[in-house]
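Q: Sequence in, structure out?
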Amino acid sequence: MQQWINQHWSIPLLLATFGPAAALVFGLPSLPASQPLNCFGGTFVCGIVGLFFRVLVGRQAWLAMGLATACAISLMELMSLAYPPGLNCPLVVKCWSFVIQLLCQAVLILQDWLPQSC
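A: Exactly. Output:
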């Protein structure tokens, strides 16, 4: 499905992370997972881990996705960056531009959230 969307609309499939992130940040802003550090940190960690395994494993995307998701969960737990929507990042990341787009997406979500929390 992602290939079909990319071919016809020329946009990456980032809705997998955008929807749950917006629901978490706007719907439950008091949760620790909704805080800015978790939003940026969780997205960044999951994106980098996904990219690392995508490069390491190569053509077997199913293996890269599984390993990356498992390692991302472990790293987020070790770093105290609980952010469940970030776990979609290893599934959609293909190159560095995806990681940058994921972080920009986190900025867009938090841009609307920060004035409410002050």
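Residues 58 and 70 are 17 Å apart (CA to CA).
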